[in-house]
């Protein structure tokens, strides 16, 4: 040692050679030369230096040798070494040590060679040392040996021979440990060696364990001598019933796992399950295990069949396809497992690891290992069963229902499947809520579109919810909102003709950028809701903006109020003035163009002219269907043309409602108008008449009272309609429209507004009788008007006659004649008597009839009002009869009024 | 400083020795230290391993020959 310089590599090597060969320094020169040459010719390692992988390999090796504690200890040491940092070339040292390592039970150098050869004969598994796969390995056979081992192969065999003899109890457990590094051997030699080795081994084993007998050794299904070795080590107690080795059964089972018939386990189409060939001798316990294991094969077949039949089925739709893809994915995972198991079986067989003796695969072990895949396949098979014939959202719902399991691993499986399955739905949804496109070729999405619907009805009819396709993880409200979002976008695009890009996506994205990745993985939690809400708010805001600014929705609404609901008083009044002569004529004589002309005039002359010309252009006259006997008043009505997006709110149906309301209001207005005319006449003519025709006084007084009653009635009605119905509802509508978050709300509040008005204007079914009563009252007013007009005409005639008579007297007197002759006076008297008797009495009675029936009508009307469920109408009745005039005349009314009054008082408590 | 280094070197050697023992390399501490030094100087570990094994085998063969040879005269 001392002679060698320990500082240089050559010196180090020299001392190393000495130590190993245990010779003196001078005796080792050939070996030293050899070592120097080998080292000198290979500077770089032929394998990649991956320390981590190497450490893992060492650990695996230790574990394989059932030295888990040592593995842990190694890991600890390795960590220590890593932290120490003194050694730079850790990988190289570990690699050296690893290459030099041996099994646990073989300390000592002398059997190393034999061991190494054993290992060389065995094909090693993929994870074992790369030595055998490296073609350019430095080895004694490649480099000419200066001395000694020129026949390594044979010497190896001989040495193994000796080793076997010298150590008569080789335990099979040492086999896996023996695939340690050996010097490279050419393949041909290796094969030869292996065969020799196999024979030798078989011989030695059979000679040592003769009791196993020939029956076991000759099993045909065992492919190699190695199999015999493993077979021979089975527990001897069960021997007699074993016709097949467990390894063979394992191989069969692996086939069955893939749904393929094995040698002895075959699919029975009658029993619909895998059956073990009853003729083969397999112990009952194994049969049970095999039965359990073959369930996997059955489940696999079931799923496989489903996937195969559906994957090419185009009608299945995207969701169905993704379902198949998810199943396929699971199956691939499953195949991977089978492949691993297969490799394990192969390895066990090749290594000769005895089944059941520790490291190898056994049926029991397989049952345990396949437990989880079994559960997974079971769940998948359940899914397949329940998803059959389903598609789209319904399929997703079914999958979702399987989420309700307590097993976290199964839940994650279902969740994964659900994610895959619902992917197309999410994609369609994203497209829908951001772009408004509905790319749903297979009718899988829960929004359905009807292509036949025209643009005018787009909002109302085009899109609908397909209830069966709503996935269970989307609530009905969410679905409604999603429908609304896309509908809004389409509405903006198609009806509003607004092509400007929507920023919703950006808004949603910026709003929840961090949750974006989450969007398609979660099921029912806040983020979906949030995305929907944001998109909903944004699109609705855009739509309402467009409606309000570009299409002036509010202005149109106001126009409706002003023209159709008679809000523009001066205009209506003037229109009535102008129209009156025309409308008094029979309806059939009316001409639309005349009326339109009048309407124009009325607009020009009143404040309506200052309105937006666009709005004025839309006002038009409309004549209702003429039925015989109608006069102009009955058929005339105003109309308001709407088009574009606005017509979505003002649909033809709502326009009909407007028309009905207009008719009612128009009629009431006409009554007011008529009464005003009568009042004007009375005021002007009465005084004149009374002067000349004093006997009219009673009649006129009676007319006046009746008129006053009517005026009061109509005034109260008008007050009620204007202030309690129209203004209140209008105010409410206005507020609601201003606050509306989306078009649906606008439409709904508008509808509510109309319905409110219709109800309170007695136009609904409940108030039909009341309305008829009111109509009769109105008719009476008209009748009164005409009666009064006739009376006035007659009275005026009479007055004029009398005046002429007086004038003639005066003229005659001025001429110096007698004022009246006898004849004249007689004539005058008879005429006056005739007037008094015939006309006066007739008119008086006529008036009495009118007055009487009017009173009755109003009383009836009040009674009906009292019985009406609407409280505001009862207030109307109270107002109509504020001084108890009708109470006195009708005891029934009295009672019911007081009752209702009491009721009201009770209800409103202390307010009274 | 030097002492600390020596300590850590010794520690490293101990660790390696332990690993060597775990892996049953059959290297004593002296041989191991030589190997480590060689490797630290950049020797290919693969080649070194094969050299060591070859030498061992040869030695073993020699010894066996001796053993077979020696009893036979008896």
Automatic annotation (TrEMBL), chain A:
Keywords linked to the UniProt accession: Cytoplasm, Cytoskeleton, Microtubule
Pfam families: GCP_C_terminal, GCP_N_terminal
A GO CC term assigned to this protein in UniProt: microtubule
InterPro entries per record: GCP, GCP_C, GCP_C_sf, GCP_N
Keyword Coiled coil recorded: no
Alphabetical GO biological process terms: cytoplasmic microtubule organization; meiotic cell cycle; microtubule nucleation; mitotic cell cycle; spindle assembly
Ranges for region Disordered: 138-175
Signal peptide: none
Ranges of residues in domain Gamma tubulin complex component protein N-terminal: 250-550
Gene Ontology MF annotations: gamma-tubulin binding
Compartment list: Cytoplasm, Cytoskeleton
Domain Gamma tubulin complex component C-terminal positions: 554-886
Biased composition (Low complexity): 147-160
Alphabetical list of PANTHER family matching this protein: GAMMA TUBULIN COMPLEX PROTEIN, GAMMA-TUBULIN COMPLEX COMPONENT 3
Family (UniProt): Belongs to the TUBGCP family.
Name of the protein in question: Gamma-tubulin complex component 3-like
Organism of provenance: Branchiostoma floridae (Florida lancelet)
Automatic annotation (TrEMBL), chain B:
One annotated GO biological process: mitotic spindle assembly
GO cellular component, one term: interphase microtubule organizing center
One Pfam family from the record: MOZART1
Keyword annotations from UniProtKB, A to Z: Cytoplasm, Cytoskeleton
InterPro entries cross-referenced by the UniProt entry: MZT1
Protein location: Cytoplasm, Cytoskeleton, Microtubule organizing center
RNA-binding among keywords: no
Signal peptide as annotated in the record: none
Family: Belongs to the MOZART1 family.
PANTHER family given in the database record: MITOTIC-SPINDLE ORGANIZING PROTEIN 1
Protein name: MZT1 protein
């Amino acid at each position: 040692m001392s002679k060698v310089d320990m500082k240089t590599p050559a010196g180090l090597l020299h001392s190393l050679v000495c130590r190993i060969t245990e010779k003196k320094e001078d005796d080792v020169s050939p070996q030293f030369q050899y070592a120097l040459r080998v080292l000198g010719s290979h500077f770089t390692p032929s394998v990649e230096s991956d320390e981590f992988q190497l450490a893992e390999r060492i650990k695996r090796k230790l574990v394989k040798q059932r030295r888990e504690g040592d593995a842990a200890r190694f890991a600890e040491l390795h960590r220590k070494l890593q932290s120490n940092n003194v050694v730079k070339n850790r990988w190289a040292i570990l690699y050296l040590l690893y290459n030099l390592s041996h099994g646990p039970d073989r300390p000592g150098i002398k059997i190393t060679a034999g061991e190494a050869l054993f290992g060389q004969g065995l094909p090693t598994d993929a994870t074992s040392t790369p030595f055998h796969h490296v073609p350019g390995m430095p080895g004694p056979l490649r480099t000419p040996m200066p001395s000694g081992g020129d026949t390594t192969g044979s010497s190896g065999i001989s040495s193994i021979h000796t080793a076997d003899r010298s150590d008569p109890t080789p335990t099979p457990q040492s086999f896996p440990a023996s695939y340690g590094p050996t010097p490279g051997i050419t393949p041909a030699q290796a094969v030869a060696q292996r065969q020799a080795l196999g024979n030798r081994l078989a011989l030695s084993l059979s000679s040592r364990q003769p009791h196993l007998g020939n029956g076991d050794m000759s099993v045909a299904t065992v492919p190699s001598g190695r199999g015999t070795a493993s077979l021979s080590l089975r527990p001897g107690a069960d021997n007699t019933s074993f016709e097949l080795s467990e390894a063979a059964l394992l191989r069969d089972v692996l086939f069955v796992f893939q749904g393929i018939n094995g040698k002895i386990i075959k699919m029975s189409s009658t029993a619909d399950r895998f059956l073990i060939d009853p003729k083969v001798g397999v112990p009952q316990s194994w049969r049970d295990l095999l039965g359990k294991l073959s369930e996997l094969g059955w489940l696999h077949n079931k799923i496989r069949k489903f996937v195969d039949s559906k994957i090419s089925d185009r009608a299945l739709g995207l969701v169905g396809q993704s379902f198949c893809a998810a199943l396929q994915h699971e199956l691939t995972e499953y195949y991977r497992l089978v492949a691993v198991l297969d490799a394990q079986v192969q390895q066990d067989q090749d290594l000769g690891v005895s089944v059941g003796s520790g490291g190898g695969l056994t049926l029991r072990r397989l049952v345990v290992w396949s437990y989880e895949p079994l559960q997974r396949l079971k769940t998948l098979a359940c899914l397949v069963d329940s998803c059959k014939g389903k598609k789209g959202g319904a399929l997703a719902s079914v999958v979702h229902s399987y989420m309700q399991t307590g097993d976290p691993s199964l839940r994650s499986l279902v969740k994964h499947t659900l994610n895959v399955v619902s992917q197309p739905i999410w994609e369609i949804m994203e497209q829908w809520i951001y772009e408004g496109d509905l790319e749903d070729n297979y009718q899988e999405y829960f929004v359905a579109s009807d292509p036949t619907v025209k643009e005018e009805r787009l909002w109302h009819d085009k899109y609908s919810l397909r209830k069966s396709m709503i996935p269970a993880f989307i609530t009905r409200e969410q679905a409604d909102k999603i429908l609304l979002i896309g509908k809004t976008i389409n509405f903006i695009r198609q009806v509003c003709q607004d092509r400007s890009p929507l920023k919703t996506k950006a808004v949603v994205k910026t709003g929840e950028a961090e949750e974006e990745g989450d969007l398609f993985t979660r099921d029912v939690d806040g983020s979906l809701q949030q995305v929907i809400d944001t998109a909903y708010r944004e699109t609705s805001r855009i739509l309402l903006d467009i409606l309000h600014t570009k299409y002036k929705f509010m202005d149109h609404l106001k126009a409706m109020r002003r023209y159709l609901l008679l809000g523009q008083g001066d205009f209506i009044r003037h229109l009535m003035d102008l129209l009156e002569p025309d409308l008094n004529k029979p309806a059939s004589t009316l001409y639309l163009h005349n009326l339109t002309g009048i309407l124009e005039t009325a607009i020009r002359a009143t404040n309506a002219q200052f309105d937006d010309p666009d709005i004025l252009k839309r006002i038009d006259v409309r004549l209702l269907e003429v039925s015989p006997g109608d006069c102009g008043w009955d058929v005339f009505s105003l109309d308001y043309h709407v088009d574009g997006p606005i017509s979505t709110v003002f649909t033809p149906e709502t326009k009909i409602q407007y028309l009905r309301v207009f008719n009612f209001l128009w009629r009431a207005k006409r009554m007011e108008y008529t009464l005003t005319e009568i009042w004007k006449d009375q005021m002007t003519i009465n005084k004149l008449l009374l002067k000349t025709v004093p006997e009219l006084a009673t009649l006129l007084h009676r007319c006046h009272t009746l008129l006053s009653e009517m005026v009061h009635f109509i005034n109260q009605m008008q007050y009620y309609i204007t202030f309690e119905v129209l203004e209140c509802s209008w105010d409410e509508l206005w507020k609601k429209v201003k606050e509306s978050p989306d078009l649906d709300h606008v439409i709904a509040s508008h509808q509510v507004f109309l319905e409110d008005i219709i109800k309170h204007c007695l136009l609904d079914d409940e108030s039909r009788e009341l309305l008829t009563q009111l109509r009769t009252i109105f008719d009476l007013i008209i009748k009164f008007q005409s009666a009064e007009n006739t009376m006035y005409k007659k009275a005026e005639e009479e007055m004029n006659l009398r005046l002429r008579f007086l004038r003639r007297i005066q003229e005659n007197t001025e001429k110096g004649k007698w004022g009246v002759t006898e004849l004249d006076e007689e004539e005058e008297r008879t005429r006056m008597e005739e007037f008094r008797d015939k006309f006066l009495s007739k008119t008086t009675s006529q008036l009495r009839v009118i007055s009487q029936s009017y009173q009755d009508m109003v009383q009836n009307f009040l009674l009906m009002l009292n019985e009406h469920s609407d409280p505001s109408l009862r207030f109307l009745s109270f107002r109509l009869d504020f001084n108890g005039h009708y109470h006195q005349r009708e005891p029934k009314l009295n009672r019911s009024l007081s009752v209702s009054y009491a009721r009201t008082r009770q209800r409103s408590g202390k307010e009274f | 400083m030097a002492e600390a280094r020596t300590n850590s070197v010794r520690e490293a050697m101990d660790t390696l020795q332990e690993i060597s023992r775990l892996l049953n390399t059959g290297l004593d501490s002296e041989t191991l230290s030589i190997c480590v030094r060689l490797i630290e100087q950049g020797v290919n570990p693969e080649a070194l391993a094969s050299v060591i094994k070859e030498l061992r085998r040869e030695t073993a063969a020699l010894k066996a020959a001796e053993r077979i040879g020696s009893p036979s005269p008896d």
